[in-house]
Amino acid sequence: MIRLYYKEDVVKNALTKNRIRNVIRTVISMAGVFMTTAAVFAAEAGEEVSAAAADASILSAKAYAAAIAIGLAALGGAIAMGMLVSKSADGVARQPEAQSKIQSIMMLGLVFVETAIIYALVIAILIIFVL
Question: Does the pTM exceed 0.85?
């Protein structure tokens, strides 16, 4: 079945994508503002921050950074693996005689995706213990 896209559909999809981008930008900006205002208000109050509180703050920032790094890597890897397996299943359904070639290429792609996730795990571990 061939679907024709009308100008209104294209404009509507573009507007939806722009709205999503704007929401993401707004959320990231607000998170940055909230993170910086806490330090500003603490400095304005003139309170002495103890060494233990500073270490706890640094440790929590490391934990957040590691969690975001491994979370994004796992999310991207899961999406990539799903797409890879889906497309290879489609290819095998279209040409069953090429199953062995498609399967070997799929396994190689899965290895590369999993390697990227493992690199993210190593970086997360380095963030926690080295930095």
Answer: no
